[in-house]
Design a protein that fits this description.
The chain is mostly beta strands. 13% of the residues lie in helices and 48% in strands. Strands 1, 3, 4, 6, 11, 12, 13 and 15 form an eight-stranded antiparallel beta sheet that branches. It has a seven-stranded antiparallel beta sheet with strand order 2-5-14-7-8-9-10, with no helix packed on it.
């Protein structure tokens, strides 16, 4: 009897722990509107059929959609599908003034242009690119699953289950800011996003 009670108590603890873990997940996009986000620049950000759409506007300039909240250490999971040029990105610990961004981008780009690599805008440029063989993980024109794990100075990116890069950087460890999605300049870009979920670490 004592063993049964102990076992039940342990099971309850496990279930409670799993419930707490689930509760910490934050859905950043509600599938209805841009609540919780701010648009930077004149490019197009809108919701259509439950999807978040980023699209070049007449100005063909850089554009960003940023969370109103800042996030330090987290696991971010999302899905994206590219049309046309498809040059975009996911920024972490980043801030924007006008359309000048400060932070680090996990690249979203056309084939063989380093999706999953890490770029520092208005700073050191490319910090790390995926190995050439890993570029094949991108399913251009179809839905892709991206995971970004940020913990202190370490960023690890995954694309469709493939680890793309793993970087440790002291400057990144000091970064502060939110999550930003990008429209690259040049025009002709359209990217769809869905299931944007963040789990604090």
């Amino acid at each position: 009897m004592k063993t049964l009670i102990t076992t039940c108590f342990f099971c309850c603890l496990v279930l409670a722990f799993l419930g707490c873990k689930s509760d910490t997940e934050i859905s950043l996009f509600n599938g209805k509107d841009l609540n919780g986000w701010t648009i930077y620049g004149t490019e197009k950000w809108y919701v259509e059929d439950g999807l978040l759409v980023s699209e070049s506007g007449p100005d063909k300039a850089y554009g960003y959609l940023g969370t109103n909240e800042s996030y330090k250490n987290f696991e971010l999971n999302l899905e994206f599908k590219q049309e046309a040029d498809g040059n975009s990105g996911v920024f972490i610990r980043s801030t924007v003034e006008g359309t000048t961004v400060s932070g680090w981008q996990v690249e979203v780009a056309p084939p063989n242009l380093h999706t999953g690599g890490i770029y520092e805008s208005y700073g050191r440029g490319w910090l790390i690119k995926p190995e050439a063989e890993k570029e094949k993980a991108l399913k251009y024109g179809d839905w892709n699953k991206m995971k970004i794990v940020v913990n202190e100075g370490r960023i690890t990116s995954y694309l469709n289950g493939e680890e793309m890069v793993d970087l440790e950087d002291e400057k990144i460890s000091q970064g502060e800011g939110g999550i930003l999605l990008q429209i690259h300049d040049g025009g002709g870009i359209k990217v769809y996003w869905r299931n944007i979920v963040l789990k604090p670490l």
